[in-house]
Each structure stands twice: as structure tokens, then as C-alpha cells.
């Protein structure tokens, strides 16, 4: 059994540039061994940017819950990494563990395809960037549901860190500069983006101060809408912030921009949209572990399908640094993606056979479909009969009461800024199929099969692992490897994040033009002998690059909180801190 949460006095996680190094913070640091006087007041935040991690800790120190802190982190990431995610323009799937009820829930903060979309019109422009790629941004409504259901603080307190950073500025990171360079041609064509990222006629350079003034004004307007109704009650105030976005000035601005730029969004699309807190899906992994994922239309079931196949193998008897370890995970992942391709879409549009897919007997049948000395290639059929038919960030929070938030939220790096709102809008429609019988086919009013899918594992009913991996189709693959590293191979949180990753492409890509690579892509840190052995088994290995970014929190066997922050990133940071009385 994993003991009770929150046992460390003070830990600062590794794997990125800490806020102390940036801001000259003089807080004491210790190593991962923890302190001499364990306490139940420890909290943990890990994210892709040190400023976002600091924002989450600030909210927890003010008495906020994991939900409050998660919203603060998400808002801050919208400012400092607006190409990866946006609480205002993107979509979110997230899992929440509520300590009082010991229940896990999932928030579906994903909006639908615009009413004016058609397959014929989109097909001609599917490969182009622009407003026609945007769906209704559902994230804000999802975040407001979390504040309503699980939060304690007022909206002004939660958005203040992001609003302050947006106005006072933040240093342009190396990652930001790389993305600006990749998208320079698009930015130059968009005056509202130019104002932010080319204020002097040239792209912002590394280390220069960047600002998001208009985004700060939008946060303030939403906060004011909340404050104006606060006397009527907190829930009424939250509803006012939701209405300001979806039935007020923000929706009006987005739809007007959409009309002017050949998009598909309408006012009714916004007015009728509501996010939802839904039941997660889960599997039992071994006797005492339960792994939770987000249900369709999320692709989260893909990780569970892979783990169901892997669960019967004695992975703890396999050398984690071996070809066997890579091969068995890669083959299980291929079968999982075949089922995703054949079955998963918006459950309001197609029948997704979740129970059949997660059935233990089905997993046993799937195991019999691959060999240890032979690699499968696409096409790979589903084991079930057919039914009718990296532009992401992940972060995690555990508060002092043992509540936990596992979040993956996404946008798409097209730098589509909506007028003077500062909102960066998603390009999620590039992940819709145009094939008639595909469960993920473009259908106005229905949702894309969304790639965001953080996971949360419990041990004997208490949080054990909160994790995520970015990168479109890499998400469930990296998360499977991450979980196996901890649960089977006994690695710590940071070790699990640092371990080299691989990605199979033996299925149609989620993104247009839906290419099939049939390769096994591996980071160069894998030893040559492992690569050679995998090639002998039939894998077409492609070496180089890195595969997604990952962050996680693990509650170890002593009940201590461990963070793993993405070591491949210059800005990721994870901290475990003891709150002061």
C-alpha cells in the first residue's frame, strides 16, 4: 500500500531551471532525501515552465486547493508558452483526485467543430493554417467548472500571477525563440501576432522581455465579471465569468474574427457550449493499482489498452535497459493505436465500445497477436469487429490535503491571435479525419478525437502517480513508458522522466496528412546493441530527436512526494515545498 500523501519538509525538484535561479530566491534547498522532520503540509507542483510552477506554489501557499493552483498554472502557461496551450483559446482534458471523497473525476474542456464547417470546404484547406482550423475553445469553461467544484479562492486571486507576468513581462526562453523562428512566416502575416512577437520589426530574441498586454486585459475583464457578481455567491460569480466568455464580449470577438477570416465558428456554437465533469475510465493494474484516464473523445483509452496488454508480462523480471523492454512496449502500443484508429471518436456521434476494449479477456487475446522476435507493421486490424462510424503541455499538482490534479492541455502553435483580446486560438481541426467511415470524421457540432490525456494512478485508493507526456500521438506512448518505468522497473520520478523514449509510427498519424511511418523512432541515448537487436526483430529504427515533454509527481513507498520535471527542457521545473503555518 502507498502510505498517506505529503511527507516532505522541503524538496526542490530537478529537471529544469528553478525559479530560485531566475529570481534570486534564497529559499533553502535540500536534496531528494528529504528533511529530518516529515510533515503533512507538503505540496508539489511540476510544469513545463518555472514561472508557472511558481504561480501554482503561490496559490497553494495562499490556501488554495490543487484545483485553484492548476488554474493558476494553466493561466501562467498561457502567457509564457502561448504556442503550447491557452486557457482562453485551447482545449483541456484533466483528472482530479478529491481526497475527501477519494474519487477521481475527469473534466472535458473540449469544444466542438463550428457549425459552418463542411468536409468539402475543409478538405481544400486541410493542410493550411488559419482560422478555419479552429474549434470552439472549451478550456475556459472546463477550468471554471474545476473552480466551482473543487476551488476555494476567488478568480482574481487565481489569475493574478498570470496577469502580473503578462503585464510586467517575462524573459524569452530558448524554446520560445525556436518556435518563433519556426512560425515566423505566419507571425509576419498576422498584425496582432506581430505586435506581440515583433514589436520592433524583428522577432524577439532570447532573454529579451516579452509582454502579453492584451491577454492581461482579457484576464482582468473576466476577473471583473466575476467580482461584479461575487455578492450573489461564488458559483454565481464563476458563472458570470463563463458567460462573459461564451455568451458575451469574448465570443463576439472570436466569431467576428472567424467571419472575417473564413472560419467556421458561430455565436450559437459558443452560447450552447458547456464543459462537463465526467466519469473517467480505468483499469486495474496488478492487484492494488488503478490507472485512470480520460474517456473518449479523448485518446486516453490508448494508454489503458497498452497497459492492459502489458500487465500480464513479468516486466519487473525484464531488464529495463534491454531490447525486450522496448519491443514488448512498442508492440502493445501498436495494438492500442490500431484500436484507437478503428473505434475512438466523439461518443455522441459514434459508438465507442469502451467496455469491450478494456475487457481482460480481450487484452489476453491481444497479447497472442505479437511475437517477441518479430515487429508488427501497419495495417494492423482491431481485435474487435468494426463499429459504425506537439503542441501541448502537461502539469500536475498535489495540495496539502492530498487533492491531486493531472492536466494535459493543448493549443497548436499557429500563433493565431484574436484582435486585441490577446487570445491565441487553437488549430485542432487538423486532427479530424475526412474519411466517411472514420470514427473521427469531421462533423459540425461534434468533437474531434482529442489527443490530450493525462493519467492518474492510485494505489489502494490513494494517489500514486500523476503524469503526462506531450506530443500528439506520443502522449499515450510516453505515458505508458513513464508508468512502466515507475510501477514495474522501480525508477524514481526524475529517473522515469530522464529515461530515453521511443515512439512507434505504425499507424496513421493523427495530424493531416495522416502519414504512416512504420518506424520505431528512438532517442540517441539508447545503446547501439539494443538498436541493432531491435532492427534484427524487424523494427525500422530511426535515431535522433526527442519525443515529447513529460512531467510527473510520484508518491513513493514512504509517502514522500517526488517530482520529475522534463530534463530536455530549459524551463521545466518541479518543486515540493512545506507550507508554513
Automatic annotation (TrEMBL):
It comes from Natronobacterium gregoryi (strain ATCC 43098 / DSM 3393 / CCM 3738 / CIP 104747 / IAM 13177 / JCM 8860 / NBRC 102187 / NCIMB 2189 / SP2). Gene3D superfamilies: 1.10.246.130, 3.60.20.40. This is Gamma-glutamyltransferase. It comes from the Archaea. Keywords: Transferase. One of its GO terms (molecular function) is transferase activity. It holds the Pfam family G_glu_transpept. InterPro entries: GGT-like_enzyme (IPR052896), GGT_lsub (IPR043138), GGT_ssub_C (IPR043137), Ntn_hydrolases_N (IPR029055), TAT_signal (IPR006311).
